[in-house]
């Protein structure tokens, strides 16, 4: 067994383990640690979006998405078919792929049309903006267990051609949009076709000038066996490289491995084949995704815990503020009632002499007598004094109303929930090391 075949076999056996790690991470976002807490578990996403925490959190994708771009007949669909070991995509010399097709693994063979595809991949919601895309969007689901297919979503794109060919949608813009949302982009050049056609070069330039895409690009010359003579192959290789030189960034480190689909009958072919390299770039992307998802998981847990601490601290402060607001409110209302008492006593003092004339005996009482005595003075300044007390009453009432604005705080139930969130998140965080260990096992690396 050759070294590369051996390593591929190992990777194939380890693929389910990698997939398991990716799936477990997603499960932690969707359901949390199932069966862990007696009151039922919650996923990180629900915890983050709970009414108490109100955070936005996106769960990391379970699979790596890999878009294949290239000129018409570059062998894009054939490569995807070879990778999954199934003739899922139509291939041939005619323009076969006119739209975008997602090829993904699932329990059984199924085809989804545009509308269903948009719903299946929620990140595609904005992809509908491209007029004419929906009828040209598909998902092919296959139960294949080949290679690392369980961890990859392939995206087959329309073949790029010049001339009369008109696309049902803006192909350049659609590829650029997709480039932002995928993890890696393979660009295939066909040595016997229109590898360097204007449209292909336009797409390559645009991708190279689009920051979200540029780091994801990998170039390959496909169908290397279609050119029999070595020196012809070299000539085409130089021609493609020269054409690309002015269009690609980082051109000094440019590398264009050549590959071809190995003959089905297994007959030996003397032409060197870098198809393993294509698979290795996919595997590398899968590994990067696992590492990124594990990192994001840790960061998200830390963010949730920090958010819990923040909302609790804010709540404490709010409760203290509410208390002082209440105290001031009570004070203002007290002052307002004192002002109203003053107003009432002013009125009483003012009208007391006329009452005393009627009820002379009642007015003989000492306290009332002194009021009667000051009554002329009150009568003289009555308007002024009553206006002041009325203004004071209005002012204190208003201040009381303004101050008594109690802000909402957490109920006991809310506080209990936040405590539960903290416990669940900490437990999820504790599983991170176990996930790393499982991931290291997939690499065959021992610590
Ligand atoms: N010799 C050789 N032929 C290949 C190879 N890969 C694909 N082909 C042939 O090239 C032709 C085009 O292949 P497709 O896979 O349909 O190419 P495509 O890039 O998907 O084409 P469009 O969808 O039209 O853009 C088919 O006849 C394939 O059999 C290869 O590695 N070697
Ligand atoms: Mg195709």
Automatic annotation (TrEMBL):
<dbReference type="InterPro" id="IPR027417">
    <property type="entry name" value="P-loop_NTPase"/>
</dbReference>
<dbReference type="InterPro" id="IPR045063">
    <property type="entry name" value="Dynamin_N"/>
</dbReference>
<keyword id="KW-0472">Membrane</keyword>
<dbReference type="InterPro" id="IPR005662">
    <property type="entry name" value="GTPase_Era-like"/>
</dbReference>
<feature type="transmembrane region" description="Helical">
    <location>
        <begin position="330"/>
        <end position="352"/>
    </location>
</feature>
<protein>
    <submittedName>
        <fullName>Sarcaleumin-like protein</fullName>
    </submittedName>
</protein>
<feature type="transmembrane region" description="Helical">
    <location>
        <begin position="382"/>
        <end position="404"/>
    </location>
</feature>
<keyword id="KW-0812">Transmembrane</keyword>
<dbReference type="Pfam" id="PF00350">
    <property type="entry name" value="Dynamin_N"/>
</dbReference>
<feature type="domain" description="Dynamin N-terminal">
    <location>
        <begin position="67"/>
        <end position="162"/>
    </location>
</feature>
<keyword id="KW-1133">Transmembrane helix</keyword>
């Amino acid at each position: 067994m050759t070294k590369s075949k051996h390593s591929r076999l190992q990777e194939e056996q380890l693929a389910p383990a990698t997939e398991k790690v990716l799936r477990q991470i997603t499960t932690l976002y969707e359901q949390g640690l199932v069966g862990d807490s007696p009151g039922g578990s919650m996923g990180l996403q629900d915890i983050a979006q709970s009414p108490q925490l109100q955070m936005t959190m996106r769960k990391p994708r379970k699979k790596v998405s890999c878009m294949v771009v290239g000129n018409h007949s570059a062998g894009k669909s054939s490569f995807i078919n070879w990778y999954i070991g199934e003739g899922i995509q139509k291939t041939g010399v005619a323009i076969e792929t006119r739209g975008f097709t997602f090829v993904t693994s699932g329990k059984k063979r199924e085809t989804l049309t545009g509308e269903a595809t948009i719903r299946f991949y929620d990140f595609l919601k904005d992809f509908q903006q491209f007029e004419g895309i929906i009828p040209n969007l598909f998902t092919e689901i296959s139960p294949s267990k080949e290679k690392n297919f369980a961890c990859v979503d392939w995206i087959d794109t329309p073949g790029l051609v010049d001339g009369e060919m008109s696309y049902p949608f803006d192909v350049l813009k659609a590829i650029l949009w997709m480039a932002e949302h995928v993890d890696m982009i393979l660009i295939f050049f066909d040595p016997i076709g229109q590898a360097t056609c204007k449209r292909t070069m336009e797409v390559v330039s645009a991708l190279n000038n689009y920051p979200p895409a540029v780091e994801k690009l990998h170039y390959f010359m496909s169908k290397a066996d279609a050119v029999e003579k070595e020196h012809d192959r070299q000539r085409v290789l130089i021609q493609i490289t020269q054409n690309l030189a002015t269009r690609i960034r980082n051109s000094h480190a440019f590398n264009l491995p050549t590959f071809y689909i190995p003959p089905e009958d297994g007959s030996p072919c003397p032409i060197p084949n870098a198809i393993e390299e294509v698979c290795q770039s996919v595997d590398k992307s899968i590994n990067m995704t696992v590492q990124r998802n594990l990192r994001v998981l840790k960061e998200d847990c830390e963010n949730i815990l920090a958010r819990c601490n923040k909302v609790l601290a804010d709540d404490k402060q709010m409760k203290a503020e509410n208390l002082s607001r209440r105290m001031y409110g009570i004070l203002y209302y007290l002052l307002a009632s004192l002002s109203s008492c003053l107003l009432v006593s002013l009125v009483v003092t003012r009208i007391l002499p006329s009452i005393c004339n009627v009820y002379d005996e009642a007015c003989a009482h000492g306290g009332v007598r002194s009021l009667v005595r000051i009554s002329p003075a009150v009568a003289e300044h009555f308007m002024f004094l009553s206006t002041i007390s009325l203004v004071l009453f209005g002012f204190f009432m208003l201040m009381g109303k303004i101050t008594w604005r109690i802000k909402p705080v957490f109920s006991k139930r809310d506080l209990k929930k936040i405590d539960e969130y903290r416990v669940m998140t900490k437990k999820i965080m504790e599983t991170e090391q176990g996930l790393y260990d499982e991931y290291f096992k997939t690499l065959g690396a021992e610590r």
